[in-house]
Amino acid sequence: MSGLGDGDLEVRPLDPARHGEAAAVWDATFADTHPLSRRAWDAWWGSPDANAELAWAAERDDELVGFALARAPRRPWAPPDVGHVALLAVRPDAQRAGVGGALWDAALAALRDRGRSRVRLGADPERLLPGVPVAAPPATWRFLRARGAVPGAFEVDLLLDLRPPVPGPGLPPGVELVADAPDEAAAFVARAFPGRWADEVARFAAAGTTVLALRREGRTVGFCVAARPEDALQGGGLAWTAGLHGHVVGLGPLGLEEAARGGGLGLALVAEAARWQRAHGADAAVIDWTDLTGFYGRLGAFVWRAYQRAEVPT
Fold first, then answer.
1. For residue 24, how many other CB atoms are within 10 A of its CB?
2. pLDDT tens readout for residues 21-74
3. Domain span at residue 268?
4. Residue 262, Cβ neighbours under 10 Å: how many?
């Protein structure tokens, strides 16, 4: 039973003046498992793909009881037939009354109108979620499966405690990690990882986020984004750290060019980047959206949050 009055439910575009109320609806529903960082929320709205015409509010008696945020990215690397439902939340006292279904229908109709024949749950540019949280109740999957969702790959966010010394190898002779060459690092990513990573790293570098460059004999062969909560542009891994104690930072995306892989340099890059964050006052680091649990586990990183990808035909 809903605790609301008997007024008619209205689904309409979300008024920007009610963004704060929408964030409060999210926290009222999911704060126990995914307390939303307001900086990450604001950064999501600051994305080039944020579109007020794809944000929906459910209102009853002028009360905001739920919302849905969708995206239809127009990045060169983004599949033109794919849209995203980034977040959907219904206030607990309004659940089981058709609110979520009405919001879902509005979001998918808007994406269909923009030519999107497939919809992914999360995983959008400047994403907040890479998929459906495993912590979500079974009712979430009942809701999604009833609407044609197909569960997919399993992804995790890892947490690395930086208070004890970071294990793992040091950098070999002739290799150094530098923090003062963001343009060099971004140019390397554009060459070695064209597409989503190149786009993301260019945006991070332009916003002043530290992008570490790994040089071997003077030539850049790898990179690591070293995100911090005070950065102007928030990485997705820092969206849900409100419940953690201490100074929590992000590591990644990160990678090596193909010719530099296979000799242990990748693990050394991660270890050295973690030590850099530790030296700059970090207590823990999030390594987000990965399935390489064994690789990062060698440094002590453990699974903190888990998600399952899902896609729905429109």
1. 16
2. 999 999 999 999 999 888 889 989 999 999 999 999 999 999 999 999 999 999
3. 159-307
4. 9
